[in-house]
Amino acid sequence: MLYRVHWGAPETMSWQRLKQCARAWLDRIRRDEQSAQGLKPDCEQVSMSELKLRPPRESKNAARLKTGRYEIGKESREIQERTASEGGPYKSKERQTQKGTMYRAPAGAWLGKRFLHKRRDRLTPEGVSYRIARAVIAALLISSLPSAFAQNMEKAVVTVDDEVTAFTYAPDGRIVFSARKMYKAKKYDLERDDIYVLEQNGKRKKIFSGEKFTLGDKPFTYLIEGFTWSPNGKIVAVQMYTTTVDIDDGTTQDARGLLFLDDQGRMLKPGKDPVVLDAQNPLWLRDNQTVVYMNNKDMPLGVYSLQYLNVSSGPAGKAFEGRTFLDAARISGSNSAMAVERDRNMDGPPRIQKLELLSQETQEVATLDEFAGELSLSPSGTKAAYYLDKEVLEIRDLTAPNKLARMRVGLGVLQWSGDEARILLKRTVEKKSADLVWVAVPELKAYANRTEIPIDEPTPNFLLHGLTIREYGISPDGKFLGVVLPGKRNLEIFPMR
Fold first, then answer.
1. Is residue 280 assigned to a domain?
2. Pick from 212, 187, 246, 226: which is nearest to 415 by CA?
3. For strand 403-408 and strand 455-456, is the pairing parallel, antiparallel, or unpaired?
4. By C-alpha distance, which of 275, 272, 266 is closest to 240?
5. Which residue segment(s) compose the domain that 107 sits in?
6. Do the domain assignments include residue 49?
7. Count H helices, E strands: the chain?
8. On the CB side of 209, how many CA atoms lie within 13 Å of its CA?
9. 150 by DSSP, 3-state: which?
């Protein structure tokens, strides 16, 4: 009703006619803006010749059956007015104008998925310029994204359609992974994971079957938590979490242990039993036979002693006897490791020590304010990252220990990128699902003792569109990213650009 009053239309005028009058009046204003100023819109002042310029809108099917006239420039309107006032037909000829060429298109001319007469505005110089500008801006925005996001647009190059519980890259790029298998034994449901090796050509072979594996005369179940390859990539140490059941009273006993397999599936027995119990976090020596592992037996929670083990002959005694550690990580390509030492009574501050695993010599590197786990060394072994608490990650230069940086990123599972410029982080504790992000490694600056160190708060950059993952790993050459997705827990390999 307000629309009808504004345009001075009588009540008997149809709604379609009213819209034609309004459009014609607006055309008059555009042609002679000054003379139209101050005039009240009145449908009765609109001539019939002007209304002929705006015929009733036809249906889509009817319009497609006719020949259309499409313009580049503004003079077409003047030609339409002249032909209409002369009573002649609206002829569809090709004509040069001051701003371009008027075109005649055959009925039903098809451009892409739309008809040409639906794209008149896109054929004007203004429309073309707008589309070009929009394309340039979009290209600039895309090119400004960090190169690390390239894998977001890639599809998985390899998919392992199994319920994968753990996986690790070998030095030569192969992947060892475990697949969850469940079996029934009388009144117990037992988990016995199988182990496979995925070759670089995508083929896989089973190197361990859990169905026939036994440990003593008692029923037991196990979950595979991770793998550690020997330096030459021929032997893999399997980290297991075992549960043994006493049939008489039904009690259970839990323990972590190590199982050793070669890449052909042959089981190595360092002792009487194939699994070395109360053993975790193996550190390989360069002879590919000797391992130093962490032992928590008769120790407070989170404190470990170190033990020697030969994968062929068995246990070989204590390492660094009388000393206890919170965490340790091997320096690639050497017989050395970095460890965080602390007294078993948790007295005194934690200290980073460089351990010579063969000679059992140590060298103190730095004294830490706190330590909350996740010690991780860069590929070159010159930098170390670890948590001070559940929020703050500290990165330290091991060649110049007074150079460091702190970031508030939240507790998670971290790995270094191959170029050591970024740290990938799954933002939750191990064996739980969360998103995967990366943060840039900041510049490490020197600070004097007892100096307050600023804490950066970097913006996390999401990988895989923020997809939730359960496990992840980076290939040794840094070209591929493997992830285990929640739900079906399939393993998928994505290229990293």
1. no
2. 226
3. parallel
4. 275
5. 2-143
6. yes
7. 8, 39
8. 3
9. helix
Prediction pTM value:
0.68
Q: Can you give the three-state secondary structure of 289-355, one letter per residue? A: CEEEEEECCCCCCCCEEEEEEECCCEEEEEECCCCCEEEEEECCCCCEEEEEECCCCCCCCCEEEEE
Instruction: Confirm whether 98 is domain-assigned.
Output: yes
How many angstroms separate the CA atoms of 490 and 40, rounded?
A: 71
- Indicate the number of domains in the chain: 1
How far is residue 199's CA from residue 173's CA, in Å, rounded to a whole number? Answer: 8
DSSP classification of residue 433? -
Letter for the amino acid at 292? Answer: V
CA distances from 415 to 111, 193, 233, 453, 476 (A): 50, 25, 20, 23, 12
pLDDT in tens, the chain (497 residues): 434 444 455 555 665 665 666 666 566 655 554 444 444 444 545 444 444 444 444 444 444 444 443 333 344 444 444 444 444 444 444 444 444 434 343 333 333 333 333 333 444 444 545 455 555 444 444 444 334 333 444 688 999 999 999 999 999 999 999 999 888 776 777 888 999 999 988 899 999 998 888 777 777 889 999 999 999 999 999 999 998 888 777 788 889 999 999 999 999 988 888 899 999 999 999 999 999 999 988 888 889 999 999 998 888 889 999 999 999 999 999 999 999 999 888 888 999 999 999 999 999 999 999 999 999 999 999 999 999 999 999 999 999 999 999 999 999 999 999 899 999 999 887 778 899 999 999 999 999 888 899 999 999 999 888 889 999 999 998 889 999 998 889 999 999 87
Alpha carbon distances (Å) from 63 to 68, 71, 182:
8, 17, 66
Residue 199 lies in a domain: no
Using alpha carbons only, give the angle 147, 151, 152 rounded to the nearest 5 degrees.
100
Asked whether 260 and 311 are in contact (CB, 8 A), the reply is yes
User: Rounded CA gap, 231 and 404, in Å?
Assistant: 29
Q: In this structure, what token pair is assigned to residue 184? A: 């029934």
Residues 6+ apart with CB under 8 A from 188: 219, 221, 245
Whole-angstrom distance, CA of residue 201 vs CA of residue 190? 33
CA distance 474 to 194: 22
The tokens describing 488, both together, are: 């079906």
Let me know the angle formed at the C-alpha of 330 by 463 and 355, rounded to the nearest 5 degrees. 145
407 vs 34: CA distance, rounded Å: 65
